[in-house]
Amino acid sequence: MRYSHDFIVIGSGIAGLTYALKISEFGSVALIAKDALDEGATRYAQGGIASVMADDDSSDLHVSDTLESGRGLCKEDVVRCIIKEGPAHVRDLIDLGARFNRNPDDSFALGQEGGHSKRRILHAGDLTGLEIESTLIRAVRSKPNIEIFTHHTVVDFITRANLDPTIAPGEKDDEVLGLYALSEETGDVSVFVGKATLLATGGAGKVYLYTSNPDTASGDGVAIAWRAGVRIANMEFFQFHPTCLYHPQAKSFLISEAVRGEGAVLLLKNGKPFMEDYHPLGCLAPRDVVARAIDYEMKKSGDDCVYLDVTHLEGYRTRECFPNIYKTCLQFGFDMTKEPLPVVPAAHYMCGGVVVDLSGQTSLGRLFASGEVCYSGLHGANRLASNSLLEGLVLSHRAAVKARELAKPSARLEQLQKAIPAWDSGHAVDSDELVIVSHNWDEIRRLMWNYVGIVRTDKRLSRAKRRIDLLMEEITEYYWNFKITRNTLELRNIAVAAQLIIACALKRKESRGLHYNLDYPQLQEGPAIDTFVQEVRARVINQPEQKEDTVKAQKN
Ligand code: SIN
Fold it and tell me: Which atom of ligand 1 is nearest to the CA of 348?
């Protein structure tokens, strides 16, 4: 099949849905989701959305908390813009029907999370993401010019450089003309063309063995963009959430930071609190500090987990504030109103990603990105809790304002799009060796957890690089020999995400925020520098003398 719309949106979390809604005022939209429409990280967000709503709060305070958390790598103009414009867009969400907790006097009942100097987290119980996601889906479904394609996995972009050898991939004049996407239902690969495409595919938590992310978080957007020559940055900054439930069946179920916001205390197995030894803010220190402290204490004691104690709160308050967390923990045999919960850190948020400006524009023509997949400069080296929903909301509005300029008909573009060939699977056959796929998934996730986790060393990173490069060769061969499936596409993407994290981590010769390397425990002197990577010439340009260093190129 071949589909033609004015705009293409890939991903259906807060970033994709917000943009789809807004851009649908200017043309037809294809909204592509890999799974069911509501499946993805947004719906699982528990804590909430950080926004200046209280009289005793201010944009300046929110800005300074964000900058402090970002350890010198936030872009201040981006931080100021997103924080300033956020509250108006939060009110748009409320106008669409989103309900956030309120006090008896109708003011917002704001939550507290690590690194915030004020209560500023809007939340809907402990199911904030679900409230936002359902609200946006209702609105999107009411728009006749948004066509929804669920269970479609994007394979790759089709760029001008793919069709015209005189255009260098990812360089000036290159642009996204459309994409190939695999339907899980039919197994067919269709061509989608549009005048502008938004990437809003979320993060890559599945690259790690333990993650709070849903199964959809396989780094698709960053990998697809990378293969098209788009500029990527700061992938070494992967945030680990300090408190996920430690239970073999719980799949790293998140225990929201909001629980610590209500006074929950982290304890060692012997009942001793330990966070005061690491940071004046104790259990509400920024995430990088808390996750590292837990990692250190677990390694020192050999224990499998630490404990989160919220038993000081009256039972009814816990059940009222955290109904979903309470119920889920109970299902796993823990009554959090009576006993401390066993918790461990798990991979949670990709702070780096596809480089965008304040309009969500990437380095490639006609391609925008928003949400976790992008690197705007808001989060720097360590994202402040609950700033991510805000980023998706604001950037998607701004991207729509910019992308609508591309809505006018273009004979040149149509001509180019006509030349896009249908998908051809060549001599590929159905796989009879799925064991390779599942083995490679497991190997990547384990090696990333063991070698590229909360604490790194150059030796571990180099080992990880050797192994992932080898795996990538196998995966690439498999990709060409066998008919593609969602599983193999995700595997290929997760391998690219792993390569990018390792490449960036190897280039950063310092410890900063979420990137902690025992070989370089200090901050590097001088101004903080981003780690940029781009596939075209495989450049890594965070350090001038490494300009021509190569990052393993992927076969297109
Ligand atoms: C949480 O509820 O702790 C997660 C919030 C976030 O990651 O921003």
Answer: 7
Residue 550: per-residue pLDDT: 32
User: Which pLDDT does position 553 carry in this prediction?
Assistant: 35
The answer on pLDDT for 549 being more than 80 is no
Cα 324 to averaged position of ligand 1 atoms, centre (Å): 14
Check pocket membership of 256 for ligand 1, CB cut-off 6 A: yes
Residue spans of the domains in the chain: they are 2-237+349-418, 244-346, 435-555
Read off the pLDDT of each residue in 520-533 and give the average, rounded to a whole number: 95
Domain 435-555 has CATH 1.10.3720.10: no
Tens-place pLDDT, residues 175-188: 999 999 999 999 99
Q: Which ligand 1 atom is the nearest neighbour of the CA of 383? A: 8
The verdict on domain 244-346 having CATH code 3.90.700.10 is: yes
Ligand 1, atom 4, lies closest to the CA of 47
- Tell me which of 262, 290, 386 to substitute to probe ligand 1's pocket, judged by most ligand atoms within 8 Å of the beta carbon: 386
What would the mean pLDDT of 259-284 be, rounded to a whole number?
Answer: 96
Catalytic residue among 287, 383, 492, 512: 287
Q: Is the pLDDT at 535 greater than 80, yes or no?
A: no
* Annotated catalytic residue 231: no
Kindly report each contact of residues 491-494 with a partner whose C-beta sits within 8 Å and lies 24 or more positions away, as own/partner: 491/218, 491/437, 491/440, 491/441, 491/444, 492/223, 493/204, 493/218, 493/219, 493/220, 493/222, 493/223, 493/224, 494/204, 494/206, 494/207, 494/218, 494/219, 494/223, 494/441, 494/444, 494/445
Q: Distance from the CA of 73 to the center of ligand 1, in angstroms?
A: 21
* pTM exceeds 0.90: yes
2-237+349-418, CATH topology level: FAD/NAD(P)-binding domain (3.50.50)
